[in-house]
Design the sequence.
């Protein structure tokens, strides 16, 4: 609950969370009180994202009840015109310091010492953690304050204010949990340990968000939650049939990808970054933030066989090529030459138009598409539209974002990265843009699962209709949620089990995994899986358009979504203030009751600077801390301490200034697309040697000049590896090329290179 004054205090909280595999159903009651002797204007705000569906909200103050209700879009627009106080939401949208998507409801005036009880219910798809756990969070703002005795909280006081229970369910079995708070022992409620319960004793320490990690038994690339139909709904409708939620978490081993899986890499550069483009990159006073260097290093790090393109955007956008081209020596040389032709543009910023153009282009032969977006200017008026496009195509690509200029675009960039399961690194003047970009490229080159398909085996008489299909690819360490409707009538009611098989490829290897699941699950009147499936179906219908046959499906689904509180592009929220005696009447006639009036209540996009996602608070704090230090003109902070503090946030100090950047740039620029170096005067000079000396120190006449030059450059790069850790990507390309050459005396070449460069690099370098 946010208000103009902090005196509206949260007194007590009751929360019941049910987690089944990777879906959470949350029912909460929050009790606030105005502790002052004057009335306060109040508004309730709750952060939402594409994985969160708020379906029930009501507030009770005395004998008055405010309830959020969904209406079809056109009807809601008419109601909003008749709703007084809509300016409160517009003011919140433009003046609040928060940024992002929220559910907001204006509650009006709260009299002195008066209590307001909030009922909030939502469903949420839970993210997968690197160790396989499902993660559930609860914001720190929605915990009541607990007095502390010394360093300890009073559990007796907490028991009066906090009732937070968690029910865990999984057909795989619940193994254990981890919570950053004091909690009761995990109690299993089924002999096979497929369900368990736990309760919080105290809120998290130091006003932190609750972070719950749930671990299930074994490692499973596939899990399924089947939810029974609503007995009151007609068979054949979404509510009248069972729905299954399948979570895909494929195991992806480390393999060398085949050429067809190397992907498509698109580099999007804000032309305002090139305003100092007249200064040669090697002579720039700040090579760390030079976009030319960044593009050069990214191009050199790409593998042969992939596809790429470079876009520059400002008031308009331009592409190097009409469509992505294969990465070869010729295309790489051409792209490197064209980098200098990018002209600065300080006008508009048409990122939205560029993204729409890219998304409208089909994927190349099923290759994974990954975007590297470097942006400096703020896009305040189009942020919501940008996120809508990113959300629509989130299963088809991944974004790595690099905002600059004091984090003006950090919020949008992080949102894009989170939505596509990419990464966001905020670049400041003391940070190394090329280094951070190449580190992300290393991650982008990791193996992935492709050719994903699901095969269903159901009893005769039952069929499956896909609501949300499997994606074309899943990146390492990520998951995907699939929803399907099971309709029909089983010929043999005694057969109550089905199976689904996941098939996918990693490189040239094929994998398949079969999961058997029960078709007779315990009933759940709250229908969390149906609600999420309905949300995905409605978005799908909105994006893809509807045929005449699908019009009936859309009409039926929208009608059901109104009763279940599932928001979609076809609906909008309006709250109704009424007396408790009228609360039972849930149709349009209630609007004409003299005791009822309309209240501003909507899903909003806020334009402030502080992200509403509680999980990104630490990241935001680190970025802003560094930004403020720069603005105040302080010297660079302790880079080692800052690196340790923000390791999880990917904020690192500049490393390449520790070595001669111009020589490093020259060595990188001379590397061929296949990873080798030619023996030239330019290379010798960049290595600090003469060509005659290099040729004279060649181990033997049998050694090819290109192989000898490649070993020399590789050893030189490795010599600075402790200063330029990201050079490993370029080293790996060189090693792969050397390993493909026949009869290269690597040990002799390495010994000669160590002697010539005055260093000691061990033979293990060739095993990168």
Sequence:
């Amino acid at each position: 609950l946010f208000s103009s004054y902090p005196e509206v205090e949260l007194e007590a909280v009751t929360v019941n969370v049910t987690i089944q595999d990777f879906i959470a159903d949350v029912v909460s009651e929050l009790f606030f009180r105005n502790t002052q002797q004057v009335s306060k204007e109040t508004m309730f705000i709750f952060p939402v994202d594409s994985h969160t569906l708020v379906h029930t909200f009501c507030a009770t103050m005395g004998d008055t009840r405010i309830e959020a209700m969904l209406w079809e879009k056109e009807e809601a627009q008419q109601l909003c015109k008749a709703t007084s106080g809509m300016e409160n939401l517009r003011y919140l949208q433009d003046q609040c310091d928060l940024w992002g998507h929220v559910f907001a409801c204006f509650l009006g005036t709260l009299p002195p010492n008066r209590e307001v009880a909030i009922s909030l219910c939502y469903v949420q798809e839970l993210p997968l953690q690197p160790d396989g756990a499902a993660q559930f969070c609860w914001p720190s703002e929605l915990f009541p304050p607990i007095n502390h005795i010394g360093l300890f909280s009073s559990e007796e006081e907490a028991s009066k204010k906090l009732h937070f229970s968690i029910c865990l369910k999984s057909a795989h079995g619940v193994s254990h949990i981890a919570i950053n708070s004091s909690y009761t022992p995990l109690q299993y409620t089924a002999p096979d340990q497929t369900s368990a319960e736990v309760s919080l004793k105290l809120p998290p320490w130091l006003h932190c968000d609750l972070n719950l990690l749930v671990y299930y038994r074994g490692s499973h690339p596939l899990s399924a939650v089947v939810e029974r139909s609503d007995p009151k709904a007609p068979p054949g409708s979404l509510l009248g049939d069972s729905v299954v939620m399948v979570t895909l978490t494929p195991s992806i081993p480390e393999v060398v990808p085949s050429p067809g899986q190397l992907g498509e890499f698109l580099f999007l550069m804000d032309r305002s970054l090139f305003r100092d483009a007249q200064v040669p990159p090697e002579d720039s006073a700040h090579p760390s933030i030079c976009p030319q260097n960044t593009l050069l290093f990214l191009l050199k790090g790409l593998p042969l066989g992939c596809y790429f393109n470079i876009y520059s955007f400002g008031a308009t956008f331009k592409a190097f090529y009409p469509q992505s081209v294969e990465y070869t020596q010729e295309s790489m040389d051409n792209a490197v030459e064209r980098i200098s032709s990018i002209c600065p543009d300080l006008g508009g910023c048409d990122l939205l138009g560029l993204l729409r153009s890219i998304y409208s282009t089909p994927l190349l032969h099923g290759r994974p598409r990954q975007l590297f977006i470097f942006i400096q200017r703020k896009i305040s008026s189009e942020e919501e539209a940008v996120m809508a496009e990113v959300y629509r195509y989130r299963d088809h690509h991944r974004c790595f974002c690099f905002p600059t200029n004091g984090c003006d675009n950090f919020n949008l960039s992080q949102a894009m990265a989170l939505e596509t399961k990419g990464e966001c690194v905020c670049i400041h003047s003391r940070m190394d843009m090329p280094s951070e970009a190449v580190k992300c490229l290393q991650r982008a080159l990791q193996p992935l699962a492709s050719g994903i398909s699901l095969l269903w085996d159901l009893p005769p008489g039952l069929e499956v209709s896909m609501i949300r299909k499997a994606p074309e690819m899943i990146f390492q360490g990520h998951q995907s949620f699939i929803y399907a409707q099971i309709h029909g009538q089983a010929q043999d009611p005694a057969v109550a089990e089905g199976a689904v098989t996941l098939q996918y490829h990693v490189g040239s290897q094929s994998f398949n995994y079969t999961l058997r699941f029960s078709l007779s699950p315990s009933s759940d009147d709250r229908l969390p899986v149906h609600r999420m499936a309905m949300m995905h179906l409605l978005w799908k219908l909105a994006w893809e358009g509807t045929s005449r046959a699908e019009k009936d499906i859309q009409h039926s689904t929208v009608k059901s979504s109104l009763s279940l509180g599932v928001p979609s592009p076809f609906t909008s929220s309006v709250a109704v203030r009424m007396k408790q005696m009228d609360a039972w009447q849930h149709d349009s006639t209630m609007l004409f009751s003299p005791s009822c009036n309309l209240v501003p209540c909507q899903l909003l996009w806020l334009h402030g600077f502080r992200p509403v996602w509680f999980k990104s608070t630490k990241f935001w704090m680190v970025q802003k801390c560094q930004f403020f230090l720069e603005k105040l003109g302080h010297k660079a902070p302790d880079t080692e301490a800052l690196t340790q503090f923000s390791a999880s946030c990917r904020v690192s100090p500049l490393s390449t200034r520790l070595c001669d950047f111009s020589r490093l740039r020259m060595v990188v620029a001379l590397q061929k697309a296949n990873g080798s170096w030619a023996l030239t005067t330019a290379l010798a000079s960049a290595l600090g040697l003469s060509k005659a000396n290099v040729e004279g120190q060649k181990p033997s006449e049998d050694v090819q000049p290109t192989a000898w030059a490649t070993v020399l450059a590789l050893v030189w790069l490795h010599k600075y590896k402790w200063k330029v850790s990201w050079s490993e990507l370029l080293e790996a390309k060189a090693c792969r090329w050397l390993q493909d050459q026949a009869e290269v005396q690597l040990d002799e070449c390495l010994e000669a290179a160590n002697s010539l460069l005055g260093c000691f690099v061990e033979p293990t370098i060739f095993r990168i």
About this structure: The longest helix spans residues 528-544. The mean pLDDT is 84.
